[in-house]
Amino acid sequence: MMDLAEVLLRGDSPLTRGERELIAAYVSEQNDCEYCAASHGACAAVLMPEGTPLVDQVRKDPSLAPIDDRLRALLAIAGAVAQGGWAVKEEQITAARAAGAEDRDIHDTVLVAAAFCMYNRYVDGLATLTPHDPAAYALVADRLVTQGYAIPSQAPAGGAAAISAAKAAAAAASAAAAAAAAGEAEENTPRRGFFARLLGSK
């Protein structure tokens, strides 16, 4: 599944990496998956010049966000996919083409959106806590943007220094997540997600 995310979000596509991360974040927001919306939103904020303010606007309502008509039309298609494949209407496709989207733009938008509907359900079906602290997601985004989604099969290049740096980054992410989880321990209905399970929380 991580390899699939690597291909979808960092592989060949006419959509920029930032646009694909933004689509992933928006669809996840529509599916009420906090972990995916926050983590991919953080990635999009790193990759797009407008940063977090734009991502937050898109997650709330793309129709009011300062984005071009092409991206707005593609996000409308992505939002329809979140409702169900049947919800994608011919007029949405026509509007996207009129705004400058090519068939591959539309195809990749639907593919990313559909895949994240699956990811959202997978993540929220694991019955684990999701941190609400943006700092935890900033750490995740830094790793994903610079290193990608594929899980390394061997130690990072650069010897002991690189290994120590990788361990330090992992420890920092764990600490941030633990702090977030601790701060939320008194909530009556904690949100569920993938993050805490990866870090060993119950």
Automatic annotation (TrEMBL):
Entry superkingdom: Bacteria
Residue stretches making up the Carboxymuconolactone decarboxylase-like domain: 2-42, 67-127
Gene3D superfamilies in UniProt: AhpD-like
Presence of the UniProt keyword Magnesium in the record: no
Entry keyword set: Oxidoreductase, Peroxidase
UniProt-recorded Gene Ontology molecular function terms: peroxiredoxin activity
Keyword Oxidoreductase applies: yes
InterPro entries in alphabetical order: AhpD-like, AhpD_core, CMD-like, Uncharacterised_peroxidase-rel
PANTHER family: CARBOXYMUCONOLACTONE DECARBOXYLASE-LIKE DOMAIN-CONTAINING PROTEIN, SI:CH211-175M2.5
Protein name: Peroxidase-related enzyme
